[in-house]
Amino acid sequence: MIMKHTNHSTCTTILVGKDASYDGSTIIARNEDAGVAVNPKKFIAVQPADQPRDYQAKLSKFSIKLPAHPVRYTAVPDATDEQGIWGEAGVNVYNVAMSATETITTNPRVLGADPLVKKGLGEEDLLTITLPYIKSARQGVERVGKLLEKYGTYESNGIIFSDVNEIWYLETAGGHHWVAERIPDNAYVIAPNQTGIQEVDFADPDHFMYAPDLKAFVDRHHLNLSANFNFRKIFGSDTQLDHHYNSPRAWYGQRYFNPEAVRDLSPMSAELPFICHANRKITLEDIKFVLSSHYQDTPYDPFTPGNEAKKMPFRPIGFNRNQELSVIQLRPYVPSEFAAIHWLAFAANPSNALVPFFANVNDTPDCYKDTTKLVDSQNAYWVNRLISLIAADHYHDVMADIEAYQDQLMGYGHRRVAHIDKRVGGLSGDQLISALMTANQKTATHALKATRQLLTTLLAKTSNGVRGAFDRTNY
């Protein structure tokens, strides 16, 4: 069973500034979606001794000699590395978080002026070659910007960095150009596989960073068709695919957070804003709902009775090709040694639940770490994948059970975080790290037990009604 990351342009991102979140945390969240339904993932902590020094990509053949002193970090790579690492999301010991990447689009005029680089860097590489070497979100932008300028990229991507104070979103343009915007503290962003950043203020270095020759490059190649420097309009695309595959996801999320702003806009609108302001504080549950959504309460929901998914006009956010969801919360109101929580869910988001793991650890629980390509009912990825398969074919029969499981496990997660905060408050150093690993293991054990119980319930409920069933009492 060989899994290739073809058509890997399917993720959805939500960013929430510290004044927009319910508790003052910076929160970054992204679905990792693959081009196939099954692409097993694992959750690991990477020690400095295990970090490569001479890095070699598997797909693009990009290579680089990495700095000598990496730090420990968490990651959510592929179960096996024959297609590369694909580290995706994590937090390092400095409480800097990174999520890479949100695959985006670039128009042909830009690609003609600055072509993609076949042997450049990409999603396979970015977390591994960046996160162990940065001490702030801004440093993450600076490092990736320099790498892009030197080596180029073979794909267009959005890359996320956060620390307890700031969130930065970097978008590439062509092979070597880029811009990054600091998300305002009181704002949120939904990024759905298309270029998002809009007006760039070159006189505001506190909120924008960019390739040194960006303005000259645009002028030289006559790329700007308006008086303002709108990065999305200059570098992005506005195609039929965008209208059906990308824009509707941002529309639905914005409709959920502040419906008044999109009341007069179509799901296919090219004018949806990048920087948005919700009409309330945003919770983890809000983020999970949107990243699990499939146009509920609209005519576009593929699970509406009588609708067939193949006839639906818009691509949902929560669907079968979700592989993992990482929601990274950096909290300002507890000691920094246990401020970072990596909330994690595997497989399809409509049927999974977030589980909180403290990030300052040397190792992760076996049932989240030891994923293989063989189905294993003792493994968190595979149990959730089996549930998602049943749920897709029996949606209305099983969703009450799934929603009860999700609410119960999320409630447990909040209780665990509060309990662990109190238990480890007086600890430090190795003693703290050990306590957090023990706590994570208990959390994982409970989550896996609840998830396996849900799988058992769904199997029992749906097995009697399969095609070809025969009941002797009818004869």
UniProtKB/TrEMBL annotation:
<keyword id="KW-0378">Hydrolase</keyword>
<dbReference type="GO" id="GO:0006508">
    <property type="term" value="P:proteolysis"/>
</dbReference>
<protein>
    <recommendedName>
        <fullName>Dipeptidase</fullName>
        <ecNumber>3.4.-.-</ecNumber>
    </recommendedName>
</protein>
<keyword id="KW-0224">Dipeptidase</keyword>
<dbReference type="GO" id="GO:0070004">
    <property type="term" value="F:cysteine-type exopeptidase activity"/>
</dbReference>
<dbReference type="GO" id="GO:0016805">
    <property type="term" value="F:dipeptidase activity"/>
</dbReference>
<dbReference type="InterPro" id="IPR005322">
    <property type="entry name" value="Peptidase_C69"/>
</dbReference>
<dbReference type="Pfam" id="PF03577">
    <property type="entry name" value="Peptidase_C69"/>
</dbReference>
<comment type="similarity">
    <text>Belongs to the peptidase C69 family.</text>
</comment>
<dbReference type="InterPro" id="IPR047804">
    <property type="entry name" value="C69_dipept_A-like"/>
</dbReference>
<keyword id="KW-0645">Protease</keyword>
